[in-house]
Every structure is written in structure tokens, then in C-alpha cells.
Request: fold
Amino acid sequence: MDGIWSDERIIALYFERDERAIEKTDLKYGKYLFTVADTVLHSEEDSKECVNDTYLRVWQAIPPERPQYFRAFLTKIIRGIALNRYSDLKRQKRIPSALCDSFDSIEGWLPEKSEAEAREDALAIGEVLNRYLKGITRRRRYIFISRFFYLKPIEAIARALTVSESTVNKEIKAIRRGIEKACKEAGIWIF
Amino acid sequence: MDILNDRLLAAVGEIDESFLEEFESTDLSRLARQSRRKERLRRSVAVCSLVLSLVLLLTARFPRSIPPVPAYENAYFTVEELISLYASEGEYGVPSIGGAGTVNYQTVIVRGAPTWNIDTVKDLETLAVYSTLPDSFYPTDKAAFESFVARYRGAIESIIRIDSDFEIREKTTSFTDIVEYDTGEKGVSMEVYHTRYMISLDIENLESLYPGELPAISRFASDDEILEALMPYAKFVLSAWGKAYSDLEIARDYASTDSDCSASVSVRFFDKEKAFSHEVDSYMGGKEECLIFSFYENGSEDTEKLMLSHIWYREMTEAKKGSLEQVAKLRRLPLSEAEALLQNGCFFSGNVCPFCAAENHKAVDFTKGYDEVSLVYRMSRNGMLIPFYRFYVKTRQDLWSGLREYGYVYVPAVEVSGLSDFFEAKHAGHASS
Reply:
């Protein structure tokens, strides 16, 4: 019974409220989740805390949720947690300014709104993004998710795809225009 | 910036988990850089699409009335030559990334000779110049690389000529190394950032462009010279268009230089009534001239641009004339026969195997009919002009660019011995595998 379990078996443990679910999740995805958080935070201590928070969040979410893609489900949770942590740290001025600059290319996409509206906005725009992503090439989806979900630096994306950074930048500009257009068509004013 | 203030970042967190799963299971080797050449060719497909505008216009006005192929434009070729022609030219017959009209692109690819490619993408913010160096030149010899940068920076920048109407508000230059994915060719990328345009210039086989040669090609034809050269062709187009020269306003768009010292310029003929505009690109120099006519429905850059025509004129040598005269005797396929070939899957696309193409790109099914057809000439590697029917199928009508996208494939417009056998053999090969 030791070793790496299938996602279905791990999820079954959550439904049985068996605490081994977290152990098995950590065994299978712990390092991966740490990497996702560390990409945002660049801090081992903070990233480990994010991983633990993720497990708690998953424990609370399953049941009733039964994720179809368990890894993706975990990834979305830890990304949200890591971004919140990033925000907290930045307010505490624990984030080097150089790191903040790495997100410059996505600055100014959308105007600021109140927190109460944020969730609603995210869901609405998320729907638009889903439709947009279905209509683009797999390569462009890869770039989109690398940059805007995982917040990977341009350089890393270019290296992964063996293209120049300017090529990635061009793709990102095209993505931005595509999203802007899709949002306008959906009645969402994003600029 | 405070990334939590960015609603997009939150929204991205709501994307479907299937996309993340796809991301994690991505085989990067399949997504890694397709050759820059393929990318350029894809763009050129888009421009060739643009360029076909006149033929579409003519066919719209005179349906099923395609003019006979002049003898000198016919060619002698085999199925194998057709295959070699398309095997290297990207994925015709599938939706192109940019769609028709999103990119103004010029390319001249001459293997074994210096090759420069300049493209402009409007409304982007970068202007890039790429150059490729011999393998031995970089990156092992850093000093040589730096020497290259110092030697060519000014000369290359001078090639980028933007019309004064397009003010360069900001311009910076940088050099980085690049490696072509398909060939492993090492090179250097020169990028000039510009606020309105992206222009990229690829230089291959640069060794033959070493000192003294690059500045030599920096002479540009004057506007008057270009217009004078254009007029014989422009008159033909104007006649079909139903416009007089005096009806038009003329504006120079941009200019560039190709490796054979030929200058190119885009001259846009605007209808004074502003109903639509007409663009003429001219490649001049050497023994080859090319005219590209494109038609804009309402003169706006933001609207769908239909490709109406692509006309090549090539100064034929005596030797070539001899071989062409042989081909001129081949029977010309009427459109109805070409349609039958299309319906039977006997067409050429980027994938030399149409069944593979159909499998990979199910969204475009050319066997069930087509939306538009035009007559075009494709030039083989040995310089022969081969007439084709180009069949279009509208794919998506609402791209991110706001333009319409076409897929298109080719059917030879002259009888080709063994063509059906070739496709049958391909089909049989698939059935057995």
C-alpha cells in the first residue's frame, strides 16, 4: 500500500476522511506544489507554508468536490495561496523590488476594483479566458499558462520552447490583444 | 506593481483545470521552436493570401473566367518537383496563425545565398532584426560576435526605413544570441524596438555579406523609380478595377532591401472616394520583379482584407524559355477537373501527404467544397513557374485579430502525369499502416 497512489485512490481517502490522504498527496505532489509556490515567492519557508495551507484547503474542499484533474486542482489552490502570500509579503516590504519588476509585463491589464467585486470579476473573466484558450494553439496556451498562471519569467519560457525572448514577447502581445478582444465581446471592459 | 490588484491574475486562477492538465502533460519537443523559416513561410502564406486579392476580385466579376496561362508562365515539372516545392513551405491548407491580412510580410529565400527577411507587423511595439551567423562564428568566439555587432549595427539599422509618417518615438537596439531549432544553426538576433512597428530582418549565410558588402546594398529606389516600374502593371490592375490613375491618391508605405540589392516598397493606391484602397508591393532588382496587389474592402487596416491577386513576372532566360515551351504544350486543366481532384483529396498542402494533413487539421475539410478559388503561380526551386488553382475554405471568421482566416490548398492547373497515382499510393500507404 506504500508508494505513489493514483489520484482516484487519494481522492477516495479524502472522501473517507482518512488523514493518509494528505500524506499521499504530499508524497505524490509535495515537491511539485513547493515549486509552484516558490516560483512566486522565491522563499523556501514561505513556500512550505503555502504547501501546508494547500493541504488544509484541499481537506476542507474534498468532499464535496471531486476534482477531475487532481494535480490541476491542487495547482489552482496553491497558486491562489501563494499570490495572497506574495501580496502580504509585499505589504510587509519583504519582497525585493527586483522580483516585483518581473511582473511588469502583466501590469495594467485590468483596472483595480474592490475586493468584493474581485471574485465576481475573476469568474466572469475566467469564463472568457476559457473560451479564448480553447480557440488558440496549444503552443500559445503553453505560453499563456507558463506566464500568467505559473508566472514564469519570459526567459524560462523562451528556454523551454527554444525560442528567443522576443518571440515569446510577441506571443504574449498577441495573447493580450486576443484577451482584450474576447473580453470586449463579452461586455467586459478591461482597459 | 501589486499583482493582487491585477484582476487578470485572479481570473487566470479560474481557468479550466483541463488546460493545466494539458500544460503539465505537454511534450515540449512538439511545441519547441518550429523553424523561423516555417514561421516566416506561414506569414508569407498570409501575405500570399493578401496578395491574391486581385484574382478573387476578377473571379468575382468574371466567375469561372480564368485567363489562359501564357506560355512563358507555364513550367515543366514532375510530381516529385511539386512535392519538393511544398515540402518546405509550411502548412498550407491549414489555418494560418495570423490570418489573412494581419501581417505585411516580404520574404525572399535563396538557399546558399545571403537571405534577408524583413517583416512588419503593425501595432506591435518591437522592431527586430535577426541575423544568422555561421556555426563557427558564435558563440565560441565572443570577440568575433562583438565585432559583428560593432560592424553591422549601423548598417542594419539603416536598412530599416520607416516612412516619416510613422514617427519613431522610441528606438532601442540590442543583440542576443539565437539558435534555430530545426537546424541547430547558431546566430545572433538584433532587435530594434519601435513604438508602432515590428520589423524583423533575418540574414542567413552571412559570411558572404562580410565587410563592404552590406553597405553596398543600401541604395533604395526612389519613389519615382518605383512608380515608373509599377505603372505597366498598375495599368492592368486599374483596368480590371475600373479606376483611372487620376482617381487615386498614392502613398508610400514602407521600404526594405533584399539580398540581391533589390528594393521593395509598398505603395498604396487610395481611392479618392475612400471606398477601398489598393496596395501594390513591388520587388525590383536583379532579374526578378514581383508585383503584389492586395485589396482592402474599405481601406481600413482593421477590416478584413481579401486577397485578390498575386502576379509574378520573371525575366526569362533563353535556356529557361526552351524548357518552358515544352510545358506550354501540356493540357490546361479546366476548373471542373481541378474541383474533381480537390474532392478526391488530390491536393497539395504543407503536409505532402494530404491524409496526414487531413488527420492533423480536421477543421479544414477541402473535400466537401470550397469558398473561393483563384489562379496563382508558384515558383519551384529551379525557378519554374507552376500554375495552380488555389482553393480557399473560410475557417474562423473572428480571430483575435478581428480578421478572417482562410485555409487553402493547391491543385495543379495543368495536367501532371502520375498525380492521381501519387495520391492513391499515399492513401494505400495509410490504409496499410
Notes: Residues 143 and 157 of chain A are 7 Å apart (CA to CA). Chain A has two domains: 7-99, 104-185.
